[in-house]
Amino acid sequence: MEWKLREEYDSLPVWIPDSEFASCYDEFCHQVLWPCLHYAIPDAPKTKYFYESASFKQYVAVNQRFADTIVAAYQDGDIIWVNDYHLMLLPKLLREKLPNATIGFFMHVAFPSSEIFRCLSVREDLLYGVLGADLIGFQTANFARHFRQTVSRILSAEALPKGIQLEDRFVDVGVFPMGIDVIALTEKRANPEVAEWVKVLRQRYAGMKLIVGRDKLDEIQGVRNKIRAFEVFLDRYPEYQGKIVLIQVALQTTEENEVQGGVADIVSHINSRFSTLTYQPVVFLHTQDLTFNQYLALLTVADAFMVTSLREGMALRTHEFVECQADRHRPLILSEFTGSYSYSGFRSCISINPWDKRTTANAIYQALNMSDEECLSRWEDLHNHVVTQSAQAFVTSFLIRNLRASLEHQGDSLTVAELDVTRIIPRYRHSEKRLILVDFEGTMWPRDPRMLVKGTFDPPEEALKVLNKLAEDPKNEVWLLSGLPVKGALEEIAKLCPKVGVVAENGCFIKTRATRNGEGTWINMVANFNLTWKAPCLEILQYFTERTPGSFIEEREASIVWRFWTGPSDNSSDRQWARRQAAEAQNHIFDSLGERYGLRIIPGANSFLVLPNNISRSTAVGAILHPGGPAHSPLGRAAWLSPEAIEAEHDPEVDFVLAIGKDEKLMRRLNELENSETISTGTNMGVKGTDAKWKLKPEEVMEVLRRFAETK
Questions:
Q1: What is the DSSP letter of 29?
Q2: Global pTM?
Q3: Using one digit for the tens of pLDDT, what is the confidence trace for 553-568?
Q4: If pLDDT is split at 50, 70 and 90, which confidence band does 688 have?
Q5: Separation between Cα atoms, residue 222 and residue 594, nearest integer Å
């Protein structure tokens, strides 16, 4: 069999023992993951699956078998595309063995809100598993947002619109609507056997209206809701009794899920109520009872197709129905809880809430009595979506994005050399105009937030002495970059180092350097920003502060810091509680304020920062580099403040840029300049990748700056 698969299908099998497969697939995948991902938390005693599922061990074993087979067959340049919830652990297992491989993961089903996913006892294993990929894809923007928020809440990682920032790498998260192979389906529809079956069905159901559905029989797919709504329809519109048939095709699922679905009894009930000697209102078929040609014929003769899922990813069977209706244009009745409904093209269906059987019954009546003109108009919208969002478009867009993400992440895993000052000094010596950018906290000054709150700040004299010495050189333009507020520590530093420019609050304020024209002034970079978000944000943080011992809020002019832990960085139960509270707080702020006000949240080890989206040290440095920026123009906030201007230009006279710090966004930006030297002082460089050209321990920074200051 293995030889045949390899020779005839270019495929490699993964052999899994029956017992392992049954426990993994039938129990963990279908009894635990499938309901959870579709918003169904089983009632007791079923909840034992969530907390003590021994089948998870088999799930791990199956994922490991896939990993072993793939690693053995992998060659450089291969793309590994992992599909669906059965293999959520696989990306991480592969990443451990193949650190530079291109790995993508696509979730074909729904992804629930964090409130549901957090009920899983193995939630962290599953999340870390998929985060081994370079790109994680979902069917809809809602599912992707739920995933980002779940990771933010459970793992306390930074969730950004583009993806997840982990300690050591960035993982892209994208939306890729899946489709069908329209060309292949059109060819299959042209099969003479389909036409023959269309003829047979029209004869068999002459004078009848046909409603068709195809679903799994578990409770998620809502077949029970569909049949109940059909019963309400027959009661409400008795003129259709004996003239309409619901043909329900059942997809295979596990026996236990089928029992939970409770479909058999409701079918028996409705048929016993309305059947006659020559009429049966519900015809129930299993997929093994009919061929694909018969199914296509059924879609062709249907007067409506009905999907009543309680939660679903993309309902691709609706795409097949739309294409089979190329001649008749009959309407589609679609649950608003499917992923398909979230796309504008599918808004031309008749939408229903499957929990509301009365409006669903009305939707059946509307479908049967819709005018041909309206049917055609709705069908054209549906058809346009199906042909543009095809299977080919899905595969192409996912693979291109996956390759791009992988290439972007390659830099993260490259080893960065320790700084060799002797290689940079000659360039420094022979340059005419230099820009020196140095992080303050954690680089020049080992921060102690508790001292700042008490209002005591002891300026690091040695550090300021070196900065002043660098600033005295007329060729140097020295800037200190800080996340601290203007009042207090930075005001004091500005007085002690008048020739050094200061960036405060991560770019919210810039203090220009003192020149012959006069003293430096503080420029507010967020003067025109809407800061009304601060009041509700403080209210949320106050709530969490009351519940987190030792935590406190630092309110700044245009940003807010919540320090949830001020003790030793250990794994004590108190710190774990504080981290959980921080994850909750971040999630709450992001949900209620993040998108509305355009905020971003930057988590740290023991604190997190909330600030406007388009403000950062990187934008501040862009303003400094701009020819009309605060370093050159007395006008203060001028043309350089527009993002386009900042991105586009930099002072052509600057022929040497030296940046020392931890801000990766800034390092990436400065790397684009030919004359830059970027040095990262990240403390966990062994784990965390950096885009800087060099790395340096924080305790060695002063010695390096002294070397530059002494160079003439």
A1: I
A2: 0.72
A3: 988 888 999 999 887 7
A4: very low
A5: 34
